[in-house]
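TASK: fixed-backbone design
INPUT:
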């Protein structure tokens, strides 16, 4: 059994203040993962029912609302940008500016067909993860954003290695390797992983 504060490779540790904003009474990381999974399913349901254009997905309002819908039964700070520094992500004071620049880039890519639909969605995912705007759930949120954008652009959902990326294992390791390659300017590994 693992305690709530325990992290593994690629997971962002939460501050004691952030942990204090947990809504349900849970004792272990496994319980938290299951609770969040159920909450995320509600968020996915909301998102797939919403009539949103691809360009609208690339907005502060939509991205924050989606995070809220994914985690509002779990965390009081759902949908709010993080206020504490992390071992990954941009400094707190850069989150809003970096995110607004990303939204502008994604809208431009869509309107000008700069990249294929898959690459637009995966690049959006990668930069969201890189910015790491929220205290928790950034990877799961960014993957859902990419899935939603891909479908709005006429593509099927991504498979993301056809595995549970929350649990440690080979698929998570490959995902993190692909993220690191994208951090270094090579998006191809992440594109391939997203459809594997």
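OUTPUT:
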């Amino acid at each position: 059994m693992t305690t709530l504060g325990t992290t593994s490779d690629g997971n962002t540790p939460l501050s004691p203040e952030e942990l204090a904003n947990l809504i349900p009474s849970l004792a272990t990381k496994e319980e938290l993962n299951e609770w969040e999974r159920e909450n995320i399913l509600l968020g996915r349901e909301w998102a797939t029912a919403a009539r949103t254009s691809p360009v609208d997905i690339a907005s502060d309002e939509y991205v924050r609302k989606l995070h809220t819908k994914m985690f509002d039964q779990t965390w009081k700070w759902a949908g709010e940008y993080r206020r504490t520094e992390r071992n990954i992500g941009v400094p707190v004071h850069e989150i809003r500016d970096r995110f607004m620049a990303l939204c502008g880039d994604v809208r431009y890519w869509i309107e000008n067909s700069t990249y294929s639909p898959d690459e637009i969605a995966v690049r959006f995912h990668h930069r969201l993860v890189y910015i790491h705007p929220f205290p928790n759930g950034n990877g799961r949120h960014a993957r859902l954003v990419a899935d939603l954008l891909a479908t709005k652009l006429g593509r099927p959902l991504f498979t993301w290695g056809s595995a549970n990326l929350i649990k440690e294992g080979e698929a998570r390791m490959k995902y993190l390797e692909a993220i690191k390659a994208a951090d270094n300017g090579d998006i191809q590994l992440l594109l391939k992983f997203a459809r594997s």
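COMMENT: The radius of gyration is 16 Å.
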